[in-house]
């Protein structure tokens, strides 16, 4: 789901508070990208806010293919001992609060905890959100995801196809494939549902994400995620690089190398001169 669409969806979940604006915040900072954890581990999702006028602070969770759900909301001057109803029903989740922070701690992680988590703050009929972080929970390795290519450099205006091979293993139930991009414009891109292209001889399926007329905005790491049998698995990612960016990086490296050589040459020159001066004075 596109990030902006996600935020619009959240508006309908904030009843009875009627908001006039929902925006991505510059004052709310949280973990971003993908965090991987194993079943049974503990993890803390960090959220920092800099606004002095924010009065309410919240956490939302969005399961793949679902609408966001409110996990907690607290009032700045409220009773700190009062626990939000959702947290009471789910004691594995707790808040770690200090001035300027509102971290979400998850203990004894379950497979069902795999989701995108957003933290936010609100004031003056305006709600502000961080970019969101995807928590990927790993279970038994009876399934796996292989992405190819691991890295691809392409010129602006070109096209590329990213492949995702899913080893279905012993889980033959219905599954969904999601593509997630981490970069300048991160978010969910595409969904496959039971569009399996068998890849014999192993029990696996192959999915493709095709990008055409790419630009610098398409640069980033693309992750393939599978939701099946109560578990969500992530691939290692395919990194898409723009050719002009790679050329710029190579040019910068060459400049640095030459500067290092020149610096070493100048240093050697002065050392040599100093040596001869000392020799002449001692003669």
Automatic annotation (TrEMBL):
UniProt cross-references to InterPro entries, sorted A to Z: Ig-like_dom, Ig-like_dom_sf, Ig-like_fold, Ig_sub, Ig_V-set, TCR_complex_component
Keywords noted in UniProt: Cell membrane, Disulfide bond, Glycoprotein, Immunity, Membrane, Signal, Transmembrane, Transmembrane helix
Main localization (coarse): membrane
Gene Ontology biological-process entries: immune system process; response to bacterium
Gene Ontology cellular component terms for the protein in this record: plasma membrane
Record bears the keyword Membrane: yes
Entry keyword annotation includes Magnesium: no
Membrane-spanning intervals of the chain: 255-280
Top-level taxon: Eukaryota
Subcellular locations according to the entry: Cell membrane
Domain annotation Ig-like: ranges: 16-130, 143-224
SUPFAM superfamilies per record: Immunoglobulin
Stretch forming the signal peptide: 1-20
Identification of the protein by name: Ig-like domain-containing protein
Species of provenance: Amphiprion percula
